[in-house]
Design a protein that fits this description.
By secondary structure, this protein is α/β, with parallel strands linked by helices. The chain contains eight helices and twelve strands. Strands 2, 6, 7, 8, 9, 10, 11 and 12 form an eight-stranded mixed β-sheet that branches. It has a two-stranded parallel sheet with strand order 1-5. β9 and β10 form a beta hairpin. α2 packs across α7 and α4 crosses α7. The protein is globular. The N and C termini lie far apart (66 Å).
Length: 382
């Protein structure tokens, strides 16, 4: 008779969704039998290799950020924030003129990098041949295309192993007590930036300088912004500096997208929701009042400045409770996703789609922006 004190742990629940680049969806895959060492393993085969059952309680079915909680001792909310002078004084031709909302953009970003999904229909000009009007996924850009080749099997295996270790630690850690804006940044780095950097390694060959060896930094990677990455490197004030910057390569100005972190007591959940209101832009027309002094207007002006000074077209912004993804869809137009919760299960997938889209655009992938954020779905009726 089996000893009840040494009963085997209960079986793990199966992944709720087959987003195979996400750690919780590879709990059924072990990357130690990847086949030919010189061949990449398509992500839609990762599920064939079972990973070991960790000790303790079963892992959750989905990946989600841990909620952030106010610490008893914390910084006090500021009555009002301001925009750096270098951003506010941008010439009219470089300012934000229109704000749009694109409801399907969030889900399109998820579908863009899902190797098992239906993909995103390509939105292309009428003169483009019908044979190129199929679908976009991150995978179909690299299976038979040298534009964005997949890394080799050993690299993928090593990264999947690290992802699984990260996911176990993330699933078991307790929620953090937040004392200040830097502590929100710390949590965003631990819960979002770290896994995104590993996930990028599963899909790209490093763009670092050749010949540096396997111990050299991997690019693309998320890191901190710095004055030398700014469009005007000699700037002394914090003018349009994002908290995190996705570096496409180690070369100057090779940036893919930005991420800005706020606190929910300075930029409240209501401020995020009021982006799509008269507080953010004129209803029905989307006209943005550059000199507006509401919190949503100040936030949008700062995000636009970050895109301008770091020469990027994609980004995300969170206050630790809410999050948006935004894109520069024309010379003077900013298009924003719906507002989502910081701890919702598909957050990492949408942000990873944003990373893939921003990098692939820089590498020359066609029709990415218009496919993920269709012009006919950019609306100002809110």
């Amino acid at each position: 008779m089996a000893n009840p004190h040494h009963a085997p742990p209960p079986p793990q629940p199966p992944p709720g969704r087959h987003r195979l680049y996400i750690p919780d969806a590879i709990v059924a895959g072990l990357p130690d039998a990847l086949g030919p060492q010189d061949a990449p393993l398509p992500p839609n085969r990762w599920h064939q290799f079972p990973l070991p059952q960790p000790l303790g309680t079963p892992l959750p079915e989905s990946l989600a950020c841990k909620p952030l909680h106010h610490a008893i001792v914390r910084t006090q909310p500021r009555g009002h924030t301001s925009t750096a002078a270098q951003v506010r004084n941008l010439p009219r031709r470089a300012q934000l003129h229109f704000v749009r909302r694109c409801i399907p953009m969030w889900d399109n970003l998820i579908d863009y990098c899902d190797p098992n999904g239906a993909g995103v229909p390509i939105v292309a000009p009428p003169q483009v041949a019908q044979t190129r009007r199929t679908v976009h996924t991150r995978l179909n850009l690299n299976v038979n295309n040298t534009l964005c080749p997949l890394p080799n099997g050993p690299q993928q295996a090593e990264v999947i192993d690290r992802l699984f270790g990260w996911f176990i630690g993330h699933a078991r850690r307790k929620p953090a007590a937040i004392t200040s804006e830097p502590s929100v940044q710390d949590e965003v780095h631990t819960q979002i930036i770290e896994p995104l950097n590993m996930l990028l390694e599963t899909r790209y060959v490093s763009r670092n300088r050749p010949g540096l060896g396997t111990d050299s930094p991997f690019y693309p990677q998320w890191g901190r912004s710095c004055p030398q990455a700014h469009l005007t490197p000699n700037v002394r004030s914090k003018a349009g500096f994002p908290d995190f910057l996705l570096y496409e390569s180690p070369q100057q100005y090779h940036h893919a997208c930005v991420m800005e972190v706020k606190t929910w007591w300075t930029y409240t959940d209501e401020d995020f929701m009021e982006i799509f209101s008269q507080q953010g832009a004129v209803r029905t027309t989307g006209v943005f009042l550059w000199d507006g002094d509401s919190q949503p207007a100040i936030m949008l002006r700062q995000l636009w400045g970050e895109l301008h000074f770091f020469q990027t077209t994609w980004g995300a912004c969170t206050n630790g409770h809410k999050i948006i993804i935004f894109a520069k869809t024309s010379q003077n137009e900013l298009t924003i996703s719906e507002v989502h919760d910081f701890d919702e299960p598909l957050l990492h997938e949408a942000l990873l789609g944003m990373c893939f889209a921003s990098i692939d655009e820089k590498l020359g992938a066609p029709f990415v922006m218009d496919s993920l954020c269709p012009p006919q779905r950019r609306e100002s009726m809110w």
